[in-house]
Amino acid sequence: MTQIAPTTTAVDELDSSHQLTASDRCDSCGAQAYIRVAIGSSELLFCAHHGKKYQEKLATVASDWHDESDRLLQDNRA
User: What is the domain range of residue 43?
Assistant: First the structure.
């Protein structure tokens, strides 16, 4: 399914104001990530599609859900 990548940042220190960039890739398919999910001391990155697909299951264990998928709509308006 997905890979859990450990981070060096504790969840309490997770900077949810940090904007995801084009170098941040979905752990499921490798597309650009727009959603970051903190679980324990790890985080998962998802494209908008996979973030929505797994949101219901991950909501029970996630300590933080950072969603920037609205940027997809903003990019298309320009």
Answer: 5-77
* Domain tally, the chain: 1
Strand, coil or helix: 56:
helix
Tokens 């940042």 identify what position?
9
| CA-closest candidate to residue 36, choices 60, 5, 57, 75 | 5
Contact 37, 24 (CB under 8 A): no
Q: Which one-letter amino acid corresponds to residue 68?
A: E
User: pTM for the complete prediction?
Assistant: 0.73
Query: Is 33 within 8 Å of 68 (Cβ atoms)?
Result: no
How does pLDDT run across 20-67, given as a tens digit for each residue? 999 999 999 999 999 999 999 999 999 999 999 999 999 999 999 999
Q: Where are the beta strands (DSSP E) in the chain?
A: 5-6, 35-39, 42-46, 64-67
Angle at 12 between CA 21 and CA 65, to 5 degrees: 50
